[in-house]
Amino acid sequence: MADEKIVIKEYTAPAGGWGSMKGMAEVLPKEGISPATLDALRRQNKPEGVMCVSCAWGKPAKPHIAEFCENGAKATAWELTSHRVTPEFFAKHTVSELDLWPDYDLEQAGRLTHPMRYDRATDKYVAASWDEAFTAIGTKLKTCDPKKVILYSSGRASLETSFMYALFARMWGQQNLPDSSNMCHETTSVGMKNAIGSPVATIQLEDYEKCDAIFAFGQNVGTNAPRMLHTLSDCAKRGVDIVTFNPLKERGWERFANPQNPIEMATGSSTQISSQYHQVRAGGDIAAILGICKIVIEADDRAKAEGRPRVVDAHFIEQHTVRFEDFATFARKATWDDIVHESGLTRSAIEDAARVYMKAERVIAVYGMGITQHRYGMDSLYMIINFLLLRGNIGREGAGPGPVRGHSNVQGQRTVGITEKTELAPVERLKALFEFEPPTEKGWDTVESCREILAGTAQGFVQLGGNFLRAIPDQGRMKEAWAKLPITVHIATKLNKSHLTPGEESWILPCLGRMEQDMQAGGRQAVSIEDSFSHIYGSVGKATPAAPTLLSEPAIVAGIAKATIAPNPNVPWDEWVGDYGKVRNAIENCYPDKFANFNDKLFVPGGFWKGNPASHRKWETKSGKAEFNVPRALNATGFAEQDGRFRLVTLRSNDQFNTTIYGYDDRFRGIKGTRQVAMMNRADILALGLSDGDTIGLESDAQDGHERVVDGLRVVEYDIPAGCIGGYYPELNILIALEHHAIESHVPAAKSVPVRIRLNP
Ligand SMILES: Nc1nc2c(c(=O)[nH]1)N[C@H]1C(S)=C(S)[C@@H](COP(=O)(O)OP(=O)(O)OC[C@H]3O[C@@H](n4cnc5c(=O)[nH]c(N)nc54)[C@H](O)[C@@H]3O)O[C@H]1N2
Ligand SMILES: Nc1nc2c(c(=O)[nH]1)N[C@H]1C(S)=C(S)[C@@H](COP(=O)(O)OP(=O)(O)OC[C@H]3O[C@@H](n4cnc5c(=O)[nH]c(N)nc54)[C@H](O)[C@@H]3O)O[C@H]1N2
Ligand SMILES: [Mo]
Description:
Elements: E1 7-8, E2 15-16, H1 17-30, H2 35-42, H3 70-79, E3 84-85, H4 87-92, H5 95-98, H6 103-108, E4 111-112, E5 116-119, E6 124-127, H7 130-143, E7 149-153, H8 159-171, H9 186-196, E8 213-217, H10 221-224, H11 228-237, E9 241-245, H12 251-254, E10 255-257, H13 262-267, E11 271-272, E12 276-278, H14 285-305, H15 314-320, E13 321-322, H16 324-333, H17 336-343, H18 347-359, E14 363-367, H19 369-372, H20 377-390, E15 400-403, H21 410-415, H22 427-434, H23 446-455, E16 460-464, H24 468-471, H25 475-482, E17 487-492, E18 505-510, E19 519-520, E20 523-524, E21 527-530, E22 535-539, H26 553-564, H27 573-578, H28 580-590, H29 598-601, E23 608-609, E24 626-627, E25 646-651, E26 656-657, E27 660-661, E28 665-666, E29 671-672, E30 677-680, H30 682-687, E31 695-700, E32 709-717, E33 724-728, E34 753-758
The structure holds ligand MGD (2 copies) and molybdenum atom (MO).
């Protein structure tokens, strides 16, 4: 979109408000939108309606008249677009040519309509029938070592599809089941499980009505979970203190005008969200939270010595936790010089935050990718848990950790078996129900899959949604290796870059989206998803499918499974495809505690809760208690500070859903017309002899012998801490070394990437 005018100008309006109305008004015509979209929006996130494909925020039992947001509307319009990518489209363009198109243009081209096979002789995708596709894919997969084929999924696929996909993998004798969570909240899944025995939020949506303080770390609410702004603004109006930690001033955490509130819209007024905003350095949360904990622990020491009421919840700590003393000793010994340096915050700012914490009875801690995507992301997460444990803020009303999940069903996929880890799979149940021997050897996660692809040992890649090659780190190295995969299969709604680096054999299998009517032998089908609060909802698509040739995801998964593995009378793939209620019965039989009476509860308003032991203080950890953890480092970056080395933070704009680019405007950040930017602190710009608007390049400072460079970035003077640079994902992913990931969870450390600046590139 080189012709679009680049405008960089501070955005002064609140999140929501007229800006979001305008955002919606601009996107709908671009997709040549039909009345179906408006109908879908009206029914969005309501009982028996369709559950939005955008974010994983809760869907209230009593929904607003319009329970959708600007970005949900964009996601809906994107799916219900009138544009089509047909066999004629593919006949006009070679794959090499399409590979040069920007992400935006590829997805803007519209919905995929036919199964397509890559033809190397013409370098084009050519149409095939579904029978041909399944037979060819099955024939090829049967020649592969199942343990070397990767079955990836992105977090959008329903519980039904995900269950079938994971079952297929295990019946085939493998569990290479990486998913988008491996690049996202895996740090939460691993860390929270270790610390409190639950891999997910312990709170539910109603807890927000009962809390009296919210601490928010590294999440961009206005863009990535806009419906959460309704909850936050209700909290702010109730006088709840909201204390935010983020290197960037994200507008959603500053001010919000509710587009559904006529007074706020008419008067231009808005609600202030955060009462305190702390611009922590990227990776500086460990130190910032340690500072708060130090203040709390030292205040408690004094109270104890003077016989006053305790500041920590001593009874809770005694009864419910381990290793408090180790942590308290560490916090007492920490120096303010270190805390201030590593966090980038002043001592008095941290004292302000600590005062709010000590005053509050019920505290929720919210966080996102700013915590999980660091080398020491697990330590940042542990610090959030330590902080909550100090005052007994886990396992009671109005208090607890509230990770904001990414994809609309990413949490649910894990619940129904998408995992490479044997201990998380229902091995015994699978054996008993389906009479086969599930694999026990650990499968590959995302980073491990990439390693195997780089090493040339992986033999195939099936992608259930997502744009893997674009979402992962080290795109340059990965692209070359990917092309050597014996087979790549993409189940997708739209064309993306991953499809355009074909393996030796390559297929695109177009599927129905969640908004679309899914008619099967047993009539119209519903699917289900799980949100960030472990609530499960049915979702019924009503829109006319983009093409009559599309198959549903369950039908495609069943098609591949049947063509690849031997039949098993206990797994009636065709019957399941005819009636997803039967898949739900199988899920219920596999996980009876979480899914009792699944089909009956599918449309309970507000979803049904699958339960969470930690929310009533039952700790399923190694020690049987909630665990304090001493951090291994005071900053989460995992690399030393050096002259000329910056911390690159890769971010989403307000006009994208992951690698899907809806447009080139990042309204709240005041950046319009380009994504090729480096947001920099004024002092850094001056020190380098640069000015706002200059062009620079960035190079990775991973020092592992590989060159990783991006040129042509426009310097944007921005309110960001010195030493940090902000830029957009996925354009900058080429700069992230594969091995720069969170230590235990393997989540790529996309929020602090060591880079150097290239002048005059
Ligand atoms: N419209 C829209 N909605 C989405 C998505 C989308 O792309 N578009 N993606 C979905 C998915 S899969 C996910 S995972 C979520 C992602 O939602 P977020 O978790 O909000 O992810 P990011 O946009 O990457 O932004 C991370 C935030 O962390 C801040 N940050 C960066 N480094 C640090 C740090 O070291 N410390 C602190 N405290 N903050 C830091 C950044 O400034 C930014 O505000 O959203 C989901 N919803
Ligand atoms: N540098 C950097 N890299 C990151 C991140 C970051 O913050 N910084 N974030 C990471 C995170 S949190 C995530 S979750 C990943 C996600 O990254 P992606 O893999 O990009 O996520 P998706 O949005 O799932 O993928 C988009 C594609 O999904 C397909 N699709 C859409 N709807 C459907 C559907 O209903 N069915 C099917 N089968 N396909 C569909 C479309 O073809 C579309 O092209 O990126 C990660 N990468
Ligand atoms: Mo994500």
